[in-house]
UniProtKB/TrEMBL annotation:
Boundaries of every C2 domain copy: 1-59, 93-204
Protein's name according to its UniProt entry: MCTP2 protein
Organism: Chunga burmeisteri (Black-legged seriema)
Pfam families the record matches: C2
Gene3D superfamilies (UniProt xref): C2 domain
Similarity comment: Belongs to the MCTP family.
GO molecular function term, any single one: calcium ion binding
PANTHER family xrefs: C2 DOMAIN-CONTAINING PROTEIN, MULTIPLE C2 AND TRANSMEMBRANE DOMAIN-CONTAINING PROTEIN 2
C-alpha cells in the first residue's frame, strides 16, 4: 500500500567477465498471491560504472512513471569461485595451512566481518524425476547462501547428472543456511523444480 516503498535490501551478485554487462531490474506490484503486475523495468550498464566505489543511481522506469534509487558498488570478487574438481582451491596443502592460520583463535577479532568461507563440491545427482515426455530431464543445480547464488552447468537428457564442480562462498552469518536446489531447464519457460536440500552452516 505504498507508492514510495523503501526496501533497504542488499544483494551480492558475482559478476564474471564472460557474462553480459547489463544488470536488468524489474519492479512488480502484487495485489494478492495470484495477481501480479509489472510496474516498470530499467537497466544498468555495469561496465560504465567506476569501480571500487559506491555509485548512487536514480533510474527512471522505462515506459512507466517512477524511478528507483539504488547504491551499486563494483568491486573485485573475493572469496567466491567456481572451479572444476581437479583444480579445487583447497587442494594445495600450503593454502590449507594459510587458511588455518588466518582463522585461528588468536586472529578471531582481526576482521569481524571475515567469518570464514564455505567450500561445496557438487558431484552428482542420482535417480532424478523425469520432467520431459521422453523420460529424461535437463538438470542443473543452484546453490544459495544468504543472498549469494551460484549454479552449475546443465547436463542434458540425464537423470543421473555429474557436475563435479567446486563452489566457494564467503560466510557473512554463521546462522545462514545453504540451500541446494535441482531444476530442470525448460528452454524459455521457467525451470521445473526437481528437488531441494537445506543445510544449516552450524551443522557443518
Amino acid at each position: 500500500k505504498s507508492a514510495n516503498p523503501q526496501w533497504r535490501e542488499q544483494f551480492d551478485f558475482h559478476y564474471f567477465s564472460d557474462r553480459k554487462d547489463m544488470l536488468d531490474i524489474e519492479v512488480w506490484r502484487k495485489d494478492n498471491k495470484k495477481h501480479e503486475e509489472l510496474l516498470g523495468t530499467c537497466q544498468v550498464d555495469i561496465t560504465a560504472l567506476p569501480t571500487k566505489q559506491t555509485n548512487c543511481l536514480e533510474l527512471p522506469l522505462e515506459k512507466h512513471s517512477g524511478s528507483l534509487l539504488m547504491l551499486i558498488a563494483v568491486a573485485p570478487c573475493t572469496g567466491v569461485s567456481i572451479s572444476d574438481l581437479c583444480v579445487c582451491p583447497l587442494g594445495d596443502p600450503s593454502e590449507r595451512q594459510q587458511i588455518s592460520q588466518r582463522y585461528c583463535i588468536k586472529n578471531s577479532f582481526r576482521d569481524i566481518k571475515d567469518i570464514g568461507f564455505l567450500q561445496v563440491k557438487v558431484l552428482k545427482a542420482v535417480d532424478l524425476l523425469a520432467a520431459d515426455f521422453a523420460g529424461k530431464s535437463d538438470p542443473f543445480c543452484v546453490l544459495e547462501l544468504g543472498n549469494d547464488s551460484l549454479q552449475t552447468h546443465t547436463v542434458y537428457k540425464n537423470l543421473n547428472p555429474e557436475w563435479n564442480k567446486v563452489f566457494t562462498f564467503p560466510i557473512k552469518d554463521i546462522h545462514d543456511v545453504l540451500e541446494v536446489t535441482v531444476f530442470d531447464e525448460d528452454g524459455d519457460k521457467p525451470p521445473d523444480f526437481l528437488g531441494k536440500v537445506a543445510i544449516p552452516l552450524l551443522s557443518v
